[in-house]
Amino acid sequence: MKSLEFLKPTLATTLAIVIAWLLSVRPAQAGYVVTLEQVGPDVVATGSGAINLHGLTFFQSSSLNPAIRPTAFLHPVASIYTGPTSSSVDSYGGLTGPTKFGSSGLETFASSGSGDMVGISSIDSPELGGVFVSLSVPTDYVSGTALSDSATYSGKTLAELGVTAGTYVWTWGTTANQNFTLEIPPFPPPPPPATNVTNLSTRAQVMAGDNILDGGFIITESKVIIIRGIGPSLSSLGLSGVLADPTLELHGPNSSALLATNDNWQDTQEADIQSFGLPPTNNLEAAISAVLQPGAYTVILAGKDGGTGTGLVEVYDLDAALGSPANISTRGLVGTGDDVLIGGFILGPDGDASSTILVRAIGPSLAAAQVAGPLQDPEIELYDTNGAVIAFNDNWKETQQTDIEATDLQPTNDQESAILQTLAAGPYTAIVRGVNMTSGVALVEIYKLP
């Protein structure tokens, strides 16, 4: 067997064979890579790399501007060019690759560009025998040298440009730098919508004397408000003992001046209330439409001729775009069972971020305002549109004390309740009860924080 030892390869020879094999099968280098991504309010394209022109055929010389068209539509070209405006280029044919990278057939020109003009286009031309893909590089470009460029589409989003996230590769050979790659990362998720308080409603037992339903709100911009006093139509919701004939009063701003009253909504302002699409469904119910200046206002819901029963007072903000009410509160009698104090509010979408809301249930401290029979130990629950409990609080210092104190809106009595929550657009309900089924007069308040 010694005569065969000359066939046994040395370690160095083996390594050389393995390395040569690895080099022969490794993928070609990426060549030129353009990344198109959202950068703040703008879309920015940045490119870098080298291009090996071997295997391509010179097509034409021309001048190009930085622009993008994701797919052929009105014009038979899908393209992206990145670099400075009015750039002289040489274009080459002989590539293969995708014919689109999005759904928009409209061309969008970049606001600015810099560096070397480099681009790719797919031309659907019968004269050229079908789809013809061309590569553009700076005039007199020396094959294999480094290139770099950028282009900015100011005030645009990737969605507005009509592109589709993904990696798109055009090739014309298998050696290094014979690729043009366009990378579009996944779009960033849209920011959550900002919110305005566009509607408040409070349901409670409306009694006689001081135990009527008393609602207050503060507005910071001039706006149109509709206020409704609902009673008889609540029976359709399965409620018994409803307020048979509600009346409304509007007081303010910042004083006890009586601004408007209504008994039956069709008696006054019928056309205005109908034009807003908010007429009560029962003719005995009340409504007031008013254009209000910045200030604090009070709404009083009572029963005609001293009538009592379950009633609902609602405040609709018809100019939410001008800024929502800064604070809304309602005072009413908290009983047991179904006779709790229910505060509902709707957050409407308005732009860039969700709202932080503070909900308070006030009881013992009402005695200082000469309110008789205040609820001594209130508790509060906050529900979402599906009826799920978002948060609960009995005594406000037990949870979120530091965060609530930072708002400077903490209750003055430790037995009172508060919930601080960041909420997206939608309807919400706050329910105020007395601990251990106690009853008394309480105040439910909703603050929208800056």
Characteristics of this structure?
Jelly Rolls; 450 residues; 7% helix; mainly beta; eight-stranded antiparallel beta sheet; disordered N terminus
Task: Describe the model.
The chain has 450 residues and is mainly beta. It folds into two domains: 29-184, no CATH class; 195-449, Jelly Rolls (Sandwich), CATH 2.60.120.380. It is 7% helix and 46% strand. The protein has four helices and 29 strands. The protein has helices at residues 11-25, 158-161, 270-275, 401-406, and strands at 32-39, 42-50, 57-64, 67-69, 77-82, 87-93, 108-109, 112-115, 118-125, 130-138, 146-153, 166-171, 179-184, 195-206, 213-219, 223-230, 246-251, 258-262, 286-292, 295-303, 309-317, 327-334, 341-349, 355-362, 378-383, 389-393, 417-423, 426-434, 440-449. The protein has an eight-stranded antiparallel β-sheet, with no helix packed on it. Strands 18-17-20-15-22-29-24-27 form an eight-stranded antiparallel β-sheet, with no helix packed on it. The protein has a seven-stranded antiparallel β-sheet with strand order 3-6-10-9-5-4-7, with no helix packed on it. A hairpin with a 6-residue loop joins strand 17 (246-251) and strand 18. The chain is elongated, with a radius of gyration of 35 Å. The model is unreliable at 1-28, 191-195 and 321-326 (pLDDT under 50).
